[in-house]
Structure formats: structure tokens, C-alpha cells
Amino acid sequence: MSGYARNGLKYVLGVLIILDIGDGVLTNILIKEGIAREANPYLLDLAGESAFMAIKVVGVLLAALILWDIHRRYPRVAFWTAFSFLLIYCGIVGWNTWLLLSGK
Fold first, then answer.
1. Cα-flanking dihedrals φ and ψ of residue 73, to 5°?
2. Among 8, 22, 30, 98, fewest CB within 10 Å belongs to which?
3. Is residue 54 within a helix (H) or strand (E), and if so which, with residue range?
């Protein structure tokens, strides 16, 4: 994989990590305000607690490391998988931001 493509994956993974952590922060705020609830059934019982953020951070870092490892053999698969999740998290963070700002 060329340096250009590797740097592209670095940026995508960096933004993905930031968005996932942002999702956790916004979700905790929305839950505490009574505006929303956690949609992930595996994290539902932890939402609003400190363990929730720890799991979010560890999970996204682990996913990023796995994708970084995959890119050595399958660079396009790693890049497009990471990019797809980045788009999904853009939608999730956008939705959570809209909920917070509208107070719905």
C-alpha cells in the first residue's frame, strides 16, 4: 500500500475514532436529559454510566487496530470498511446532535 493510501486510512480511522467517542458523549448527555435512549441492545444497560464510555473507547480502538492490521493484506477492503463506518457514524452523530439541539 502506498504512503498516500496509508495516510488516507490513518485519517479515516482518526475521524472514525473521534466520531465514535462523540457518539458516546452525546448519547450520555441525551440519556441524562431524558431525550433519548441507547439503541444498541448490548450497551443499553451501561448507557449513562462511566463503563459505557470505557467500552466505547476500547471498542473503537480495537476496531481501528484490526482494520489497520487488515490493510496490510487487503488495503481496499480495510479502507472502504472504515470509510463505510465513518459515514454511518456521521449519520449517528448528526442525529444525536440534532436531538440535543432540538430538545426532542
1. -100, -35
2. 98
3. helix 50-70
